[in-house]
Amino acid sequence: MSLRQLIQTTILAGLIALPFTVQAGDAPTPEIPKAKEKATEEYGCVAPTDYMRKNHMDELMHKRDKTLRKGIRTRKFSLAECINCHVTPDEDGQFASFGEDEHFCSSCHNYASVSVDCFSCHRDTPEQTDYQHTFNTGDNPHHGKIALEGNKLSVETLQVLTEGDQQ
After folding, report:
1. Helices (H), the chain
2. Mind listing the pLDDT tens digit for each residue in 39-96?
3. Pick from 77, 57, 60, 80: nearest CA to 133
4. Which of 94, 157, 160, 164 could form a disulfide with 153 if both were Cys (CB 3.0 to 4.6 A apart)?
């Protein structure tokens, strides 16, 4: 056996053994903070946990596109609602900021070395007031004049507003 074949065999054996090593429970896992309340009794969150872990980025992007481009704002898959529920205070009543391992989003994103830019514009801590943007005032960058056709809501906007949170 040549040196090259020995190296190839060693690498192949290592790659084959890697999944068994990880399954042995030696790999560290992130500590994900618990949400402070359940969005639904059925799932806890707005969708099953496995679905949210796998698809949250797609849902947030889809939500962003509807909000930015069509002025459609619903609570389901809203980043602000995620933060309000999942970012909880520590024993001293302080909230972790994005980037700190104690922050809900950071707990996995730091672990996976995935960077996001959500919080360059959005809050990374829960809102402390009951303030909500008024719908389509034109003052809010997320609520352009697209949602209104004249002084009426478009059919698509009405459909999403009435069915959006039920999907």
Report:
1. 3-21, 49-70, 79-86, 104-112, 155-163
2. 777 777 888 989 999 999 999 999 999 988 988 888 889 998 899 889 988 899 899 9
3. 80
4. 157
